């Protein structure tokens, strides 16, 4: 087994974080407004092999390059955004909202004299119901509907190797919809499915398929296929309950 990625202690991580902070402030003394840790650093649950992810917020119209690199024992990402752009991203709603919102909410300030991160963490949860519903409508067309069609095609032509992959895709896509519908963001990608099955409003059939995916028990192709079909039924019933219509009755005018 290779010796890297390396295990590092929390103290070692924060020693390098503070060194990066000092270097940034020396290199750009008047242009950096805030520096904060996100991901496992922001959640304060980093483990020995966790990487280091840092937000760097600059004044508007100031351009500083982002960096992602491996140095010594550390994998480090320094994500640089101008203040206006960072605020814009924090309030954006898309299909990955439930996965990405925590990046803006769970931030550990490293340098933040203006309390910018306190302002930022309120934004993701202030998105409108209409924006969430429209995102769910669009995403259902883009991904789950198309995924179940692929699952049916491949099951029909007996390309059974695709069925477990399609089941994983459908489960992940549904988890994102569940987070959106409930305004719940997931703590980490690694715990998304585990957390999603505990959320109140979700489609029938989801828990059963998600448990199969989490356990890796996907070898019974017929059973997994039927779980996917059950989830499709559940998704459509759930959307009807939520009042979200994603299928149209007439062709667009294309004007």
UniProtKB/TrEMBL annotation:
Coiled coil: none
Species whose genome carries this gene: Siminovitchia fortis
Gene Ontology MF term list: nucleotidyltransferase activity
Gene Ontology biological-process entries: response to antibiotic
Protein's name in the database: KNTase domain-containing protein
Signal peptide from the UniProt entry: none
Sequence ranges assigned to domain Kanamycin nucleotidyltransferase C-terminal in this UniProt record: 116-245
